[in-house]
From TrEMBL:
Residues 1-29 form the signal peptide. Residues 138-148 have a biased composition (Polar residues). This is Putative transmembrane protein. Keywords: Membrane, Signal, Transmembrane. Residues 93-130 have a biased composition (Basic and acidic residues). The keyword Membrane applies. The keyword Signal applies. Residues 41-151 are annotated as: Disordered. Residues 60-92 have a biased composition (Low complexity).
């Protein structure tokens, strides 16, 4: 019986592992930079030529840079007379986005207020109509209604009592 060697199998496994590692490293090839509007951009392609070198935060295959150190040392005389430099914008904050969010919230609030006013007007209108109908019922006059066939019917006492109860419920909920 011939002996089989494990070496070819191990070589194949090693080759497959190497190919997988090479593909995984290309997936990690990520560029990171800050664009002209101050937003942080992540991409698998290099930034455009208009992006200054200092705004490139990460290159593929390179370790992440340490915190930026100012290139010019601050002297006490220069810092006393000069105005303080503007605070750097946080990379996660977008002023336009914040403004749009505030506008959307204000519009939503106005819409809710308008809907509440519309409902209040409808309730007041229902209340007024119910009060007038109740006054008519309480007057004792003979009232006629139209049935499903379109014929006029005079309201009897039972129907008058149920209608009075319905109007009282409306007035309780809307007035």
């Amino acid at each position: 019986m011939p002996k089989t060697s494990l070496a070819p199998l191990a070589l194949r496994s090693l080759a497959a592992l190497a190919v997988t590692a090479a593909m995984a490293s290309s997936a990690l090839a990520q560029w990171q930079w800050i664009d002209n509007t101050g937003r942080k951009v992540f991409s698998d392609t290099a930034p455009p030529a208009s992006v200054p070198e200092k705004n490139i935060l990460k290159r593929p295959g390179a370790p992440a840079p340490m915190a930026a150190v100012p290139t010019t040392p601050a002297t006490p005389a220069a810092s006393e007379g000069a105005a303080a430099p503007a605070a750097p914008q946080a990379p996660g904050v977008d002023k336009d986005l914040e403004a749009r969010k505030k506008e959307a919230e204000a519009a939503e609030e106005a819409k809710k207020k308008q809907e509440a006013e519309r409902l209040a007007r409808a309730r007041a209108d229902n209340c007024e109509r119910a009060k007038r109908a109740k006054a008519t019922l309480d007057s004792g006059q003979r009232l006629a209604t139209t049935n499903a066939k379109g014929e006029r019917e005079i309201m009897d006492d039972a129907r008058r009592a149920s209608e009075a109860q319905r109007l009282q419920d409306i007035m309780r909920s809307d007035c």
